[in-house]
Amino acid sequence: MADEPPETASLLARAAAGDGAAWGALLMAHQQRLTRMVAFRMDPRLRGRVDAADVVQDAFVEASKHRADYFRGTQGPLFLWLRGVVSNKLLEAHRHHLGTRRRDAKRELPLDAPGRPDETSAALCAHLTAGLTRQSVAVARGEVRTRLAEALDAMDPTDREVLAMRHFEQLTSAEAAEVLGIEERAAAKRYLRALKRLKALLAEMPGGLTELRP
After folding, report:
1. Residue 200: enclosing H or E segment and its boundaries?
2. Band of the pLDDT at 175, cuts 50, 70, 90?
């Protein structure tokens, strides 16, 4: 708690002592960022069937049941602990609706097999091509997605994760580094390298796919 702003540290101390209102305020403070993460990571096939906000709310219920575990633990950033709970809820949603077995990014990195479709690549590709709806680019959409997916899969897996976390989830360098178990300086360097590479990839794509937005 020492690195938290005074108001957050106060809420954490009160929540640790059993103050439900303080715990609720902490959850609300992180809700928007966590909803953004779910919206980015959710399989496109679930859009319209599963709402990102509902996944976060289900995770908050689960987190509230186990909040004592957080306060008994190592006292890392609450946001990252909640992000882990939300990630597990999103995995459950994927398994329930799609029957797929998915792993979180940290556990998946060492297990990546050559040619295996990467879930982060898929999320990045879906996000970057979401605007390809104009008739003028409709024909090129399939080609763009294929080429972009292949290029993203060819990136270093950790670079790809740092890019997703920093640019699209808007995590800080320190947060991304902690999730991936690397040094903060390394996370910052990997992000700049991956961002430069992605911008170059987008410039090479047909159909005018040149804008990179969070």
Report:
1. helix 184-204
2. very high
What are the DSSP calls for 91-156, one per residue? HHHHHHHH------HHHHGGGPPTTPPPHHHHHHHHHHTTTTTSHHHHTTHHHHHHHHHHHHHHS-
Please report which confidence band the pLDDT of residue 104 belongs to, taking 50, 70 and 90 as the band edges: very low
Determine the average pLDDT of the residues in 127-148.
Answer: 67
Q: What is the CA radius of gyration of the chain?
A: 19
Task: Show the tokens assigned to 43.
Answer: 């399989």
3-state DSSP percent of the chain in helix, strand and coil, to 5: 70, 0, 30
Q: Is 152 exposed, middle or buried (0-12, 13-18, 19+ CB in 10 A)?
A: buried
CA distance 173 to 168: 13
Tell me what the mean pLDDT of segment 46-67 comes to.
Answer: 94
pLDDT at 140 (0 to 100): 58
d(CA 74, CA 54) in angstroms, rounded, equals: 28
Grouping H, G, I as helix, E, B as strand and the rest as coil, residue 106 is helix
Question: In terms of Cα–Cα distance, which of 170, 134, 164, 155 is closest to 201?
Answer: 155
Output DSSP code: residue 44. Answer: G
